[in-house]
Amino acid sequence: MVVGKKVTKESILPSVCEDDGDEGGKEEDLGGIASRPVSRPRSLYSRGSVDGQRVSRSPSHHQSTRMAHQDEDHMNEEDEVDEGGGIHPGDGQQQEEECVISDEDFDTDLELDRFHNERRAYDPTGQSSYREACKMLNVVPVSYFLRNMNQSELNMMHYGLGSQGTKALAISLVTNTSILKLNLRDNWMEGIGGAAIADMLKENCYITEIDLSENRMGEYGARALSSMLLENSTLFSLNLSGNHLDERAARHLSPALISNQKLQLLDLSHNRFGDIAGEILGAAVAENTGMKSLNLAWNCIRGKGAIAFAKGLEGNIFLRTLDLSFNGLGKEGAVALEEALKHNNTLEDLNISNNRIPFEGAIHFALGLQVNTTLRILKMSRNPMQSAGCFAILKSVQANPETAVEFLDFSDICVDQEFEDLFESTKETLPNLQVKHGGKINAVLKKS
Questions:
Q1: How far is CA 333 from CA 42, 228, 358, 359, in A?
Q2: What Å distances lie between residue 193 and 34, 136, 187, 190, CA to CA?
Q3: pLDDT band at 292 (very low <50, low <70, confident <90, very high)
Q4: Biased-composition ranges for Acidic residues (predicted)?
Q5: Predicted TM-score (pTM) of this structure
Q6: Closest to 221 in 3D by CA, of 160, 264, 268
Q7: Helix 330-343 × helix 303-315 angle, to 10°
Q8: Which CATH number does 125-272 carry?
Q9: Beta bridge partners of 434
Q10: Which CATH number fits domain 286-448: 3.40.50.720, 3.65.10.10, 3.80.10.10, 3.30.2130.10?
């Protein structure tokens, strides 16, 4: 036996309304018999299926008719979607997936997402990459570096970066576009850190001046930096002072100096270059076509090395400033420089202080100075050439009508009255000439 159910007024289904005039709200017991056929062909989405239900008559013909029309409009919309869009029962999830796949902007959205990801990944200062590199290499980030990565000049002397800290720094500097001058002096980076900086400079085209002095890079770092100089075209100042460089490092640097035409200032002072290195670097200097300033002070270039380097200077036509102080040129080096001064017509500033040049060496050097027309500044302090050697140098300047000499430095060399008289007469023809010396001999004797 099927028990009938009561349906309230609000649950009246239009498809079962048959008496328009019944307003009493009386219920009709269907007695478990299936309801009358629907008023239109049943659809899978039809609301007319009320099998086995007890339904009540609609009390209002107007309300019943309005609800019927609303139901028909809704069903017509569903039928239209079913006919035009191909929607079938149970396929809602499949249809939703098909809409996503058939979206005409599907590829464009992926491209935009990729573009935004690339924009987020690009960091012109390199801060994010520096933090990640420090985490990867297990080093503490330098807060000063993070605060000043957007400056054009960055001074990080004595920060104790070490090789790992230098690696992290180099990784972030690959994409940095702000820093133009970088000072990393005395950071104990050694060869590994120097190689990391060299790799960075192969990619970074903004840094133009870099100071890597006092970092003990040795041959390993010199080899990496030499390879960089063969590719880099923006760096014009490089300081490698105090890096334990010897003749093996010189062999790596030589081809770089010959090929690179952009580097203008190179500091190789306070290293371990000896005679062999002097020969190697001399040949490179003769072929170089871009360098304007070279510092080789505080090395051990002497004997054959000094002669070979002077011969290289003779063939150079670009170098303007050369510092050979605190080497061991001696008489042989001074004689070789005589020939260099006779043929070189570009050198303007020469420092050969503290090179054990005796009086005989000064005489030969003066012969070259007597015909030179470009040298403006000459520093020969702390050489054992005595007052006679100073006198010979000054005399050659006076005898050269085309001389360009403006400053002579004879510091720590005492001169006699004869030198003073010569200087006074030279001032008549060269009023701008300045001479510095260690004082007059007589005055020194009185003080002692």
A1: 115, 32, 11, 13
A2: 91, 16, 9, 6
A3: very high
A4: 74-83
A5: 0.73
A6: 268
A7: 10
A8: 3.80.10.10
A9: 407
A10: 3.80.10.10
